[in-house]
Design goal:
Two copies of one chain form a homodimer.
Chain A (H helix, E strand, L loop, with lengths): L8 H21 L24 E5 L3 H11 L4 E5 L11 E2 L4 E2 L6 E2 L10 E2 L5 E2 L3 H10 L3 E4 L7 E3 L9 E2 H19 L14 H12 L32 H5 L6 H4 L10 E4 L5 H10 L3 E2 L3 E8 L2 E8 L2 E7 L1 E4 L3 H4 L3 E2 L3 H9 L6 E7 L3 H4 L5 E5 L5 E4 L9 E8 L2 H9 L2 H12 L10 E8 L15 H12 L5 E3 L11 H22 L6
Parallel strand pairs in A: 1-2, 1-16, 2-12, 9-19, 13-17, 16-23
Antiparallel strand pairs in A: 3-6, 4-5, 7-11, 8-11, 9-10, 13-14, 14-15, 18-21, 18-22, 19-20
Chain lengths: ~525, ~525
């Protein structure tokens, strides 16, 4: 998923004063840089044979499963209470027959029963530096394959340019950059160069601009093979495409982020996805902890005690009370605030203060992989319409059918708009908008599923939508334990909306429990 | 493979006079644009029951196999003579036990017997617009998966900057672009904008530069998350990396092409490769034509006759004469010129006039996938050293072992240099240079294979190294039939070094044969 709110602001605010070196120095000063500060995977001390610790984990999302796995293998007694019919939380892969548990509108996924026909309704990609998640994938035997963000053959369709006509991403990026590089080469003078650049670097700057824009020897942009050819025919000489009109291209500032989307910290190639669906991560954890997970278990009360936590839950008509030494909860904090509890007032206020993201996705089973006939294999098309993106599968290439993501919208306005519609209205709107990218689109649709996260049962939203202000006010408080109770989940990280954030939140809490347990096991001072 | 010589020159020369619109108009004038000009896959007229046509195909490379498949299914009698021990030509995937048929130095590949441990020694990637090859993959059941060129986590190591210290590709690209975008934003004035840009576009240009370089609100580059973070720890606030020194970065003009390599016409994502190795394409064709292929068949003579072609070949001690109606040859033309023939003098001169590429590759079986611990999954690291590139596999993720490409050099000088060394010397040099990118590299190497295409038996070079001058002088002549004899192969295309070029060359010849056969089958004029 895309982080809803940029995490960059924190340091940007500081950096505004003194430039990037200042940012770095500030970070050093804060002790953020040294490797020792890093929240690595905690190596929990095993409980001795005589020590027994019971930990209740509320929610079988990725942070809950991580906690159960780490604690269970070190001798802790673990009970995972999960309100829904399945483990995984927002790690949700939809296949034939799966329940789409939207409040007031539960329905089944009608994709054909076929292992290639699935939709990752929550997280869908893993960058190569998400070492925590990748480490568990390795350890738990979760097979991985490449995921593709950036496909230069995919479409860009922006109502602000070319009358809304679709153009190839490779033309959009190449032609815009070519013209601007030409303009820069014309405008930059040797005297514009300031330290650390030298006068001698002027030629290097020009050479760079030529390479950046694919300019000719006189620094003109005359079109580029990077934009694709007018005609693919290797038995004849190349025919360059005529460059698009730069004035039109520049009207598309609304969409400029897509020109660099695939270069983002968490989005740059090579990205990965589990073979067979993101919920293979859940399956991997469950191979280790399934016996500890109780589904359909609705938590009714969380009471922090002097030496532990008392949980009351309801499952299959039975009310059960558990007294635990520790409690870790990845229940979305805005839902937790509605459950009976005895948290301090400020902590309880914080639970209710953090809003949630409103991501919305649609998946369509298509009876033909028509996009492959348009030379599109994997990747994303972009549109200024509400559906925002179309994703094409990078697996199952050249099979008859495929599931594409027919909408992925992360703006709160469109997320709300889609959520207010009926399932049928959502699909109809997405089909109509999809036609702007792929004429004839409607004719390929066999089944559609819509996932409005704000209306999904036991969720009512997706990632915590932290702002800088909210974070400053509440984050440390909500992440600090109340007695032996801990909030976890991607909501308790600086990377909401990513499984990596969820894992780190669990590690953070587990390290604290481990610290306390190690202290407890010390012989009393003489 | 990378085309050895840019195909762009042809139109560049014309374009220099009048800009890109002129190029396009010229192309229109040449009749290159209309779809009718396109050399689509020929739909050969089936031979009637009474007509028999024998076609001898010299060489079981991709163009030869394409020809055999297309002709065979339309009723032609097909005989494919292949000099080597295997079909496929330069489509060569090396696995456990395979012969590396270097002249004077034949040896075996000692990779472990494991389906994930292979090396594509020839072509290794397929772009999404290579519709000819992709069409056969679909038709012949060749499974495909993504191939990764661009990995921002991979390394760039350039002796011209930072004293040869490796840096991450994401820093190399992001920091350079950020500083130059800042410089451009500072230098470009509203009055620099010329039509079709308007004064009103000035703000758009600035917005574009901000997006391009990830500049701050005052158009300063202060570092970017695109360059990665100083520390990956989602439980703490982000820490930007300190930007690298732009003066140092700009010294690397030698390597600037790598900043846009992954955007090339034939290199931009999403690229593909066959699951299990590129030779699955060969296997796909052989499922249709294996019965027609004679291995170890050395052609001794090609004699064009008035109504056909006589071929003499030698196999297993037996000399055989075949009289065929047609002959298609993908024998490298510089080797063909040494075989007894009766071609016209100018044609024979042309055969000897086209030089060959000198690509060189090394594959290393590594006992650990150490690169994955450096967050590198798939893609390419670049170095200014002779080995030029390291490729990491995008398949077999998180397994114990992997095969990486330890050298891929396409400059003729380095290709020759490596070819002159013994196999052991080549591997030693590549290991020593690899250490600059991955300290400890040597310790991971289990087996190495080197492929100097200039010394490979029955090849003595790879793709035809056409220059504009050579092409103008010889290409049309060599592609025109001599009687019923045709040269084919990627050498007879505008896309040498790519299987797509090979297929189109076959289609070009087959269309001509079909035209002649259709004429022959017309009833005589009354």
């Amino acid at each position: 998923m895309i982080p809803l709110f940029t995490r960059r602001r924190f340091l940007d605010l500081a950096g505004a004063a003194g430039g990037s070196a200042a940012i770095y120095q500030m970070a050093l000063g804060l002790g953020l840089i040294p490797a020792a500060a890093r929240a690595d995977r905690p190596d929990l001390a095993p409980l001795g044979a005589r020590r027994r610790r019971r930990v209740v984990i509320l929610g079988a999302g990725i942070s809950g499963l991580t906690s159960a796995y780490e604690l269970g293998r070190k001798g802790y007694e673990v009970i995972v209470l999960e309100a829904s019919h399945r483990a995984g939380g927002r790690n949700l892969t939809l296949r034939h027959g799966d329940l789409i548990d939207e409040i007031g509108n539960p329905r089944r996924c009608e994709f054909d029963p076929d292992p290639d026909l699935y939709m990752n309704a929550g997280p869908a990609r893993i960058p190569g530096h998400h070492t925590a998640l990748l480490g568990y994938c390795r350890e738990l035997g979760v097979g991985l394959e490449p995921f593709i963000n950036d496909n230069r053959n995919a479409w860009v369709q922006d109502e602000a340019m070319f009358g809304g006509r679709r153009i190839r991403n490779r033309e959009y990026i190449t032609d815009t950059r070519g013209f601007i590089a030409e303009l820069a080469a014309k405008s930059i003078k040797p005297e514009d160069l300031a330290a650390p650049l030298t006068r001698g670097d002027y030629e290097h700057v020009l050479a760079y601009l030529r390479s950046l824009g694919d300019l000719d020897q006189s620094f003109k942009y005359r079109g580029s093979l990077r934009a694709g050819m007018a005609l693919h025919d290797p038995s004849a000489p190349d025919v360059l495409k005529q460059p698009l009109d730069i004035h039109e291209l520049l009207q598309s500032n609304f969409m400029m982020n897509i020109m660099t989307f695939g270069e983002g910290d968490d989005q740059a190639a090579m990205m990965m996805e589990p073979i067979g669906g993101m919920d293979q991560v859940v399956a991997g954890f469950l191979r280790k902890v399934d016996q500890h997970v109780r589904l359909h278990a609705m938590v009714e009360s969380v009471q922090v005690k002097e030496r532990g936590v008392r949980i009351v839950y309801h499952a299959q008509g039975v009310r059960t009370v558990i007294d635990a030494d520790y409690c870790l909860s990845c229940i979305p904090v805005h839902l937790l605030s509605g459950i009976d509890n005895n948290f301090p007032a400020d902590f309880a206020a914080g639970l209710a203060a953090v809003p949630r993201g409103k991501l919305f996705k649609i998946g369509f089973q298509m009876k033909e992989r028509f996009w492959e006939r348009e030379n599109i294999y994997g990747g994303i098309s972009w549109t200024s319409q509400d559906i925002q993106q179309l994703w094409y599968p990078a697996h199952g290439i050249h099979r008859q059918k495929g599931v594409i993501l027919g909408a992925y919208t992360f703006g709160p306005r469109t997320g709300e708009m889609f959520a207010r519609l009926s399932n049928e209205q959502r699909l109809e709107l997405a089909i109509r908008q999809g036609e702007q990218l792929h004429p004839g689109y409607r004719g390929y649709v066999e089944h559609g599923v819509s996932i409005p996260w704000v209306r999904m049962n036991n969720m009512l939203g997706c990632a915590a939508a932290w702002t800088d202000e909210l974070r400053q006010q509440w984050f440390d408080l909500l992440r600090s334990p109340v007695g032996n109770y801990y909030n976890i989940g991607d909501q308790m990280s600086y990377l909401p909306g990513w499984q990596e954030g969820a894992i780190y939140s669990a590690w953070h809490a587990l390290a604290d429990i481990d610290r306390r347990e190690r202290q407890n096991s010390q012989p009393a001072a003489a």
